[in-house]
Specification:
The structure is a homodimer.
Chain A lengths: L1 H7 L13 E4 L13 H13 L12 H5 L3 H5 L3 H12 L4 H14 L15 H12 L3 E9 H12 L6 E13 L2 E12 L5 H9 L6 E4 L5 H8 L6 E6 L20 H9 L2 E4 H4 L11
Parallel strand pairs in A: 1-2, 1-5, 2-3, 5-6, 6-7
Antiparallel strand pairs in A: 3-4
The complex binds calcium ion (2 copies).
One calcium ion binds next to loops of chain A.
Chain lengths: ~290, ~290
């Protein structure tokens, strides 16, 4: 990849000091799959079912009732507010340590409805190789996701080699308190920040504090992150994955309710963003299996 | 230091994997000095004066009028609200890049009222050595400060070797927008989060995502960070600097309005926090001068 050569070759006019080699990656649809629905949404639904015996009132109360009736597609294709209500009900009031255990347990047992694979094996092999390549060239790699920051942190280090402090995401408010004499962090059932669209550059500003030189995404939710990354001086790289391989993975773009890729695709040429054509560019999709 | 040996020696029962070697440092009074007033407050006052020609209304409007009359001590010893009002007026509506330039220019020209030193030379030599020692032992070092995150980021990398993405602090809201056709991050005149007291563990949770094993501070504002860091399983280290050297630096503790050290000092023994007695423990204070 000539961009990486340019920025890492001493004496090159585009040389970038290692401290400035910041690379940001969207997660859903960029590092792991996101069809037929965001994997975190499946976690929420399973969690609702798990908690339902303690909440008999949910049987009559939306959006919980729909989930418990076994019609999760209705929720998932519905509005964002329902999803947020589910997330608040399931994430809130746990300590961060308790939440980590809940997510870790789920990741161990849950399987993708179509492939039967654990979700952490539905990561893209070429992207894992790209992460490793950039790190070998002294890039610092970050996730910048619309998904929940604490959810992603549970598996990002083992799965992608990205430590918790290099994960940026949507977050709840959290507070410090003493529980049973021990200091803990408690996740509150209140949304604090949505790391999507214009929230992505704002999240990067907050967590990283400088502009990346490399950004990868797959949907219009990455538009502002790509634009902000690539519109400054010096060598910059913007990458968009186009999911167009229905046989080996999934095919969706302009009309998809999940991972809609429309304006970012249209503007890719004038913005000099590289569009990866998964069907023809990727030999392998997932590490453990070459088809869905 | 036996703590570091314990956690870095393979086979030791307290061995900690390098990825978990997170060390957090307060800034004001821990990495650099904070007397007679927080250095960032001096920045705010200078900035008010610099901006005042464009704001004739400030001559009649508090807290600006007091600053412009040349009575900054009154403001600085006053309530936190006045300081926040000043900060909002001076930080708000700049892009992050513009703000960086303003801070960088100020740091170049401003001098400490008593020592005549640039503020970035009023850093503690023994703490610089501690940072370097911990990093050599594969600790990742972070600043966790009640001061402004974007203010500290301007000098933390050059001064302490701590990159922007490892700085946690008090922050304004910020938003992404297109200005003159270019994507920028704008700092809004609205406080988003105060990284002090119970805010410090909450800030660590947000930015780092795991509990540190080492924490250093100098005031009651670090109490919760120290408590949270040291109250979990395994080897942990909490350090408190006690400023008691009036000749070479400053002496202040239980009754100080800035950097008040009272409860954290009282509880240090039962919490097993190490209290550093600056007067007798430190041979050198500042890198370029051994006395104030
Ligand atoms: Ca995506
Ligand atoms: Ca302090």
């Amino acid at each position: 990849m000539s961009f990486v050569e340019k920025v890492t070759t001493a004496g090159s006019k585009d040389y970038v000091d290692p401290s400035q080699r910041i690379a940001v990656f969207d997660n859903d649809g960029t590092l792991w799959a996101e069809q037929p629905v965001y994997f975190q949404a499946l976690f929420l639904l399973d969690r609702i079912k798990q908690l339902s015996p303690k909440h008999p009132e949910w049987a009559e109360q939306e959006p919980f009732a729909t989930v418990l009736r076994g019609e999760p597609e209705k929720i998932l294709s519905a509005d964002e507010k329902s999803l947020v209500a589910l997330a608040m009900a399931t994430h809130g009031n746990l300590t961060d340590d308790e939440f980590k255990i809940v997510v870790r347990d789920w990741l161990k047992s849950a399987r993708h409805p179509q492939t039967g694979l654990p979700f952490t094996e539905m990561v893209y092999q070429p992207m894992l190789e790209l992460l490793a390549y950039l790190r070998a060239e002294h890039f610092k790699t970050f996730i910048v996701s619309g998904g929940g920051i604490d959810f992603i942190r549970v598996f990002a280090e083992e799965t992608y080699g990205i430590p918790p402090e290099q994960v940026v995401g949507t977050r709840n408010k959290a507070k410090y308190e003493i529980r049973d004499g021990t200091p803990v962090i408690v996740k509150l059932p209140e949304l604090d920040f949505i790391d999507d669209g214009p929230g992505k550059p704002a999240g990067i500003h907050l967590h990283i504090g400088r502009r990346p030189i490399f950004a990868a995404g797959n949907s219009d939710g990455d538009y502002q992150m790509l634009d902000w990354t690539t519109s400054s001086e010096g060598a910059r790289f913007g990458m968009i994955l186009h999911h167009n391989d229905e046989d080996r993975e999934f095919a969706y773009d302009r009309n998809s309710s999940i991972g809609k890729l429309d304006k970012a695709w249209t503007d890719a040429e004038t913005k000099y963003w590289t569009v990866v054509d998964i069907k023809s560019d990727w030999k392998t999709i997932f590490p453990t299996s070459s088809s869905k």
